[in-house]
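ok, trying the design again with the full structure, not the truncated one.
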């Protein structure tokens, strides 16, 4: 039989366990715990999992985890791999509950993300509710600074919970975007509670909501078609090449919660993009300045979606290279508004034996009482789906 119990907040001891632990044949915990006894095994997660799966029906085993075993804990993962009648969970206070009690905040106002041992986090749960609770490791603050690089300091308020439950715990407000990472030992346990100080904008934006150079914006109706045909999914990485005002990437984040990398060579447009990323509170985005094709080889990231809205002839010549960079089952969408560029695109794709489908889209608007026709330029869209590699 396996009992999985949380030690709650505070020092790495068993003092918070309110039951008799002497009845257990083995007690398993990680190496941070200070307790010592002949029946205590200090194991890493993988080792603990293997031991529990091999011995759950042979011994009475207590597995002690930090905080609450029901809150982002390895304990619940292991429990799901054991027969239900051979495992029991004894809960304890989680760092989230502890912070809520200290700051008088309702847990219903909080979403949770984990950056403990992770590079990426779920954008569907980050800065969507009034508060975002972040489980941290020593790299988390640097990671968040990068993810929030286009935010203003006043857009968020951050409270750090450092060494919760220890005698020297700290619960205090910090300036996350300018935090000195050497001011605390970030290898110690800590969490962050980020309060959103802005009102989320409508997920579908009007063209006037973007600062832009005249003509350098993908109009609202074209954005809708483009984002629809990209088949975006949450946490995809989208490359927006020839970003212009950044409107497509920004609305992709707002609507679908994707990560974005924008490529733009025009310095005037770059400044507009920076303002737009800030004004729309875009998280987890990068802006690469210069000729887009000069960045492709240096980027280790693998995009699931690529949108080519500009970039000129040199980018068109790089379409096979972009296809190579695209993730398995990824999608690349290319917009063309001139027959000259369309013909060049098709020539490059055909020579590389890349399969595609093409759509021609036109829209005519009318002013007044349908007495003045205002034709729009025709838009050609080329959609490419990355084929599975053959064995």
């Amino acid at each position: 039989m396996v009992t999985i119990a949380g030690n709650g907040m505070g020092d790495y001891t068993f003092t918070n366990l309110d039951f008799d632990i002497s009845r257990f044949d083995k007690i398993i915990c990680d190496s941070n715990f200070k307790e010592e006894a002949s029946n205590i095994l200090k194991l890493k997660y993988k080792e603990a999992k293997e031991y529990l799966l091999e011995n759950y029906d042979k011994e009475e085993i207590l597995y002690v985890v930090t905080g609450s075993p029901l809150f982002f804990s390895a304990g619940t993962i292991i429990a799901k791999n054991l027969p239900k009648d051979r495992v029991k969970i004894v809960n304890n206070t989680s760092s989230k509950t502890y912070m809520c009690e200290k700051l008088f905040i309702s847990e219903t106002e909080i979403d949770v993300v984990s950056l403990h041992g992770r590079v990426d986090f779920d954008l569907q749960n980050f800065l969507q509710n009034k508060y975002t609770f972040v489980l941290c490791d020593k790299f988390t603050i640097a990671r968040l600074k990068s993810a929030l690089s286009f935010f203003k300091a006043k857009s968020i308020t951050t409270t750090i919970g450092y060494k919760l439950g220890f005698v020297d715990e700290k619960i205090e407000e910090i300036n996350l975007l300018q935090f000195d990472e050497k001011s605390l030992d970030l290898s110690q346990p800590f969490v962050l509670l980020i309060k959103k100080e802005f009102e989320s904008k409508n997920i579908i934006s009007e063209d006037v909501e973007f600062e832009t150079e005249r003509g350098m914006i993908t109009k609202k109706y074209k954005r809708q078609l483009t984002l629809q045909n990209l088949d975006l999914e949450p946490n995809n990485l989208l490359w927006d090449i020839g970003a212009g005002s950044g409107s497509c990437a920004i609305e992709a984040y707002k609507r679908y919660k994707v990560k974005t990398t924008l490529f733009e060579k025009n310095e005037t447009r770059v400044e507009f993009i920076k303002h737009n990323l800030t004004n729309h509170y875009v998280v987890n985005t990068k802006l690469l300045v210069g000729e887009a094709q000069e960045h492709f080889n240096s980027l280790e990231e693998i995009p699931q979606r690529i949108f080519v809205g500009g970039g000129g002839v040199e980018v068109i010549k790089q379409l096979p290279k972009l296809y190579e960079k695209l993730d398995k089952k990824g999608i690349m969408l290319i917009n063309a508004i001139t027959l000259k560029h369309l013909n060049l695109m098709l020539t490059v794709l055909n020579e590389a034996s890349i399969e595609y489908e093409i759509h021609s889209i036109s829209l005519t608007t009318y002013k007044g009482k349908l007495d003045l026709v205002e034709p729009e330029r025709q838009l050609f869209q080329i959609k490419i789906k990355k084929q599975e590699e053959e064995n």
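Keeping the full-length input from now on. The chain has a mean pLDDT of 90.
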